[in-house]
Specification:
The protein has about 290 residues and is α+β, with helices and mostly antiparallel strands. It has nine helices and nine strands. The strands form two sheets. The protein has a seven-stranded antiparallel sheet. A two-stranded antiparallel ribbon has the order 7-8. Helix 1 runs parallel beside helix 6. About 40% of the residues are buried.
């Protein structure tokens, strides 16, 4: 049942959530020059999420932390959850086809915990960003997944280089082959087929990650999470005070349309969350507050 491993993973995701929330509120407090400095510093509003099984019994939940209308962050959500129960038929079929796990239909129990973050920024010079790490367990196998990717509407090559270099440095602690493998995976995963383009400038992405050594795999996923703040915060600090035009803000809203389309049509986490009955507001937290289609 891996109860101790589940508890350690869930506690880690909660701790990472606390670190990120504190760092983001710190960015709101330290914003002293540039646009929006006269507005109040943003703060997260935290609410519990609950999930029930078909028979009404408890099936886990988590915390939804959302900041809206900050000086730096227009909307950012940092969610953590630990959910469990039985996979429905569609989820069973998807899991069985992707993982090739025998016995899924006979025993469809599952447990999943993770952290999911999406930040949409006030200043169009500051890139939007996504980060997620998670652990999944069934009686037939366990694995980790997640990653982080940058989504600027106005790209700065040095910012993209910094984000990727930080991801690589943390990946290289474990295996020099990780970064090129998971960068390529992110490039493929975050591609929007109907638009013929990526939704951003990439990062790293992994799923179904299991070498058979839980301790080593967990240590790697922890470093995927640890890489996030040093990869992203310096970009916010560099760009948040830049002046911007209405044309640049308009470009940001149009770019957000790509993000919304991807998350609603292709994102695996969105589909899984809705199909397993998790709180819809938490699942759809990733959607931008404003977007534009032309």
């Amino acid at each position: 049942m891996m109860e101790s491993e589940k508890a350690r993973a869930s506690a880690w995701f909660h701790g990472l959530r606390d670190d990120i929330v504190a760092a983001f509120e710190g960015l709101e407090d330290s914003h002293e020059t540039g646009p929006f400095v006269d507005e109040p510093a943003g703060r997260f509003v935290v609410s519990e999420t609950k999930r029930a099984s078909d028979d009404g019994t408890d099936a886990g939940g988590g915390l939804m932390s959302v900041m809206r209308g900050g000086r730096v962050f227009e909307k950012v959500g940092v969610n953590v959850s630990a959910v469990y129960g039985q996979l429905g038929e569609r989820a069973q079929a998807a899991m069985a086809s992707r993982k090739g796990l025998p016995g899924m239909r006979e025993d469809p129990r599952f447990w999943a915990s993770g952290i999911s973050l999406v930040a949409h920024m006030r200043n169009p010079h500051v890139p939007a960003v996504h980060m997620n790490t998670r652990m999944f367990w069934t009686p037939h196998g366990w694995w980790f997944g997640g990653g982080s990717d940058l989504n600027p509407c106005i790209e700065y090559e040095e910012d993209t280089a910094h984000f990727h270099a930080t991801q690589k440095a943390y990946c290289d602690r474990h295996d020099a082959a990780h970064y090129p493998r998971f960068k390529t995976w992110a490039d493929e995963y975050f591609f929007i087929p109907h638009r013929g383009r990526a939704r951003g400038v990439g990062g790293i992405f992994l799923d179904d990650y299991c070498t058979g050594d839980w301790q080593a795999d967990f240590a790697f996923v922890q470093d995927v999470g640890r890489a996030f703040l040093p990869a992203f915060v310096p970009l916010v600090e560099k760009r948040r005070a830049q002046a911007f035009t209405e044309t640049e803000k308009d470009a940001q809203l149009i770019h957000r349309g790509l993000y919304a389309e991807y998350n609603l049509v292709y994102d695996r986490g969105t589909k899984f969350g809705l199909e397993t009955g998790h709180d819809a507001n938490a699942v759809l937290m990733s959607l931008p507050p404003l977007a534009k289609w032309v």
